[in-house]
Amino acid sequence: MSKKLIRGGIVVTAADTYRADILIDGEKVVAIGAGALFSKETEGAEEINASGCYVFPGGIDPHTHLDMPFGGTTTADDFETGTRAAAFGGTTSIIDFCLTSKGQSIREALDTWHAKAHGKAVIDYGFHLMIAEANDAVLHQLEDVVEEGVTSLKVFMAYKNVFQADDETLFKTLIRAKELGALIQVHAENGDVIDFLIKEALENEQTDPIYHALTRPPMAEGEATGRAIALTALAGSQLYVVHVSCAEAVQRIAEAREKGLNVYGETCPQYLTLDISELARPGFEGAKYVWSPPLREAWHQEVLWSALKNGILQTIGSDQCSFNFKGQKELGRNDFTKIPNGGPLIEDRFSVVYSEGVHKGRISLNQFVDITSTKAAKLFGMFPQKGTIAVGSDADIVLFNPNVTRTISAKTHHMNVDYNPFEGKEVHGEVVSVLARGEFVIRDKKFVGTKGNGRFIKRHKFGASPTLKEEQPHVL
Ligand code: URP
Ligand code: ZN
Ligand code: ZN
Ligand code: ZN
């Protein structure tokens, strides 16, 4: 395997910002220092000029739905197009949600998801496992699931009659997760209340996209978040709330963390930058902005930024779940409940957060790395192999030019979908090159990766803190 030397950039981790060169040997970072200090080791290495660039650890997107059947259709992006777009955007690892259904064997569900990703992904991937029911058979099988490196389990508290699980299922799963060392994730919205509000809306012929948001009020998210936290406390377990969208949910998480509970939260770029008014766009364009939870009134955005800044929320996921406007979102033209939920964000997650967060002074450069990479690696059992730039870590590295602007558009994005929710938005900074385990995937903004090079990440248990198994770090 060849050596590479990334020269002249500014290395940024969750902890530090410093000028240094990075020596890569094969898949790993093997030395960090000033070029002159390790000239012997770098002999024969290919030099990569990073001057003018930040050198970030590759982004980790802890929340994606690729090749997923949902709402009577299947997401527009699969593991090939989705991970390629992710790489263009500076992401080198994803964790995708493996769906299950009642009565299905867990083994079969995981095999299905492995088959979707294997041979297709261009970057590394892990899986979260959805829990549809918590009977003895499922709870027993979870031991093998965790051993296999699938160390996070997802329970939906919404989508009644589709994915929704009851409190007993959530509670039993929390207890089992505590025994096994898994992190429980919840989609926290009160599905029963939402179902009632939806029926009421449809009876009143309120069928436009805006009613998607109006039938899923912030309090329904706050209530479910609080309930999941209470059950976690009762079980003495650990909880990660996905796609937090509103102040009511942030408040519940803040209180829990203040009490010392193992409770964590993720938000997404859309909740930080877009608001409920998008759903009222004419010509059914509002359907492009249908997510669950829905976009909120604009004032929630600063609450979310503040929660990220203050460590109440730890991560940013894209919740990538792309559906074309034509033929897919359009399924709900006469009934908002038939609009497939979700949007395409895997590609722009990293740079929207950089631009709106760092460039606008809301978060620091190091906090940016923490929330887009490091914290996800730590919470989901991948650190320090992933999520940082350190001797012995995987050489998952992004060269990022902060001194240019770019305009987001579906015409130039790489996702396999016909619109972009950030169409026309100007962002500061752009991804120039991306290495995944030491190999270029993106080089000078061009894709040079290989389909199938992405590997399954066997993740550690929640709370386990592995050390680097590679050669002893040698300090220069
Ligand atoms: O609207 C969304 N979030 N779609 C993806 C599925 C989910 O709930 O995460
Ligand atoms: Zn060495
Ligand atoms: Zn969800
Ligand atoms: Zn999701």
From TrEMBL:
Residues 54-441 form the Amidohydrolase-related domain. GO terms for molecular function: dihydropyrimidinase activity. The keyword Metal-binding applies. It is an enzyme of class 3 (hydrolase). Its EC number is 3.5.2.2. Its cofactor is Zn(2+). Keywords: Hydrolase, Metal-binding. It holds the Pfam family Amidohydro_1. Belongs to the metallo-dependent hydrolases superfamily. Hydantoinase/dihydropyrimidinase family. PANTHER family: COLLAPSIN RESPONSE MEDIATOR PROTEIN (PTHR11647:SF1), HYDRANTOINASE/DIHYDROPYRIMIDINASE FAMILY MEMBER (PTHR11647). This is Dihydropyrimidinase.
